[in-house]
Amino acid sequence: xxxTVTSPLRHSHAEALTVAQLGSEHVQxxxxxxxxxxxxxxxxxxxxxxxxxxxxxxxxxCLRTGDDKAAHFCLEKLAGRFGASNxxxxxxxxxxxxxxAEDRPALLHVLRxxxxxxxxxxxxxxxxxxxxxxxxSLSREADAIHMLVELLETCPTDIESWAELSELYIxxxxxxxxxxCLEEIILSTPNAWNAYPRAPRRSTIHIINLISRPAxxxxxxxxxxVAEMASTTQSSGSNGGCEIPLPSVESVQMLNQQxxxxxxxxxxxxxxxxxxxxDLTAMExxxxxxxxx
Length: 293
Prior knowledge:
The chain is an all-alpha fold.
């Protein structure tokens, strides 16, 4: 996949430089293409959605490599298409201003602008996140933690904010609070493999139990139901006089397969993060057909 489409967080230095060079070429090639200061989605030339993703990634790459002119061009194109009051565009403009800030007073000026925007619109999440970044740059970790806590009260499923908050708690020595943040990440995104090694061992085992137990119960219940359905059908030739129709054997077996798949994947994750043999044994026992609740 093209580097201009993939997430800028995954770009190496060489890839970021390549994307930034594309941004400079884009400035020269498309300088004649102008958009009005407000969005007109049904009039004139319309670019595909991928175009704007590429443009945003070019903005990040240009800021990373110090090409302020190309970054400003990308920013103005996005503002012309989506409007200067668009929350994402406001966050990108703030990022651009942060990149241009050369000293602490300049960063404080950007922070005051963020405060003014949030005062007008407390739900502007992109600007709130940029405010957290500026506070961290100013070594005001306590204020950044307070800002993230407020943000997560509004958006409790924002994994990025939970991760940032956990890092801030760890940097300040608040390990119990950081553990809670990591638990929220793993519970919301069980496939976040990089969060497991950072979580304390007792938290990881607790989370794994929360994930695996429901699957274990579902697997054992579906096994028993399949067996009882088979015996009932053989003895009575019907659903045993039950007024409520039973599900088909195939659907119950499918549930059992899904539960087994979850248990197998969870066990593999435990192995991948390097837990001890007793922990692995306890997880693997859940997959044995002879195990009963």
